[in-house]
Amino acid sequence: MAAITDLDVLLRDMRPDLRPADYVYCTVAGEEAGDWLSLSPLGFFREDEGLTLILERAVADKAGLPYGPVMRCITLTVHSALEAVGLTAAVAAALTRHRISANVVAAYYHDHIFVPAQDAERALAALAELAPV
Known about the structure:
The protein is of the alpha+beta class. It is 26% helix and 31% strand. Strands 2-3-1-4-6-5 form a 6-stranded antiparallel beta sheet. A hairpin with a 2-residue loop joins strand 2 (43-47) and strand 3 (50-56).
């Protein structure tokens, strides 16, 4: 299936899926992602200050890594094109109206929204409001 760029179709078909695990963002010194692959990060990003890892909370706890807020991940299961315009803005606006913070990670096939764990169900409801009737 081809990636979708049409915002109306993206919103209609996004079908948010809440992953069951808790996730955390950790930062580690150095730039070698390979040193941390044994932790099976859901994602990582290299910054000037260090390597950010997105890990299941249980993995971070076992590894003794400090982290910030506990998050849940909502995957928009629609195949969104990387060049699609407006999806991130629409999602952010919907969550902002409900005073829910969001960290969006775009991957090749899907967008993944990390929200505070205590707000996950409210975030799902807010995203449901975006689907055209």
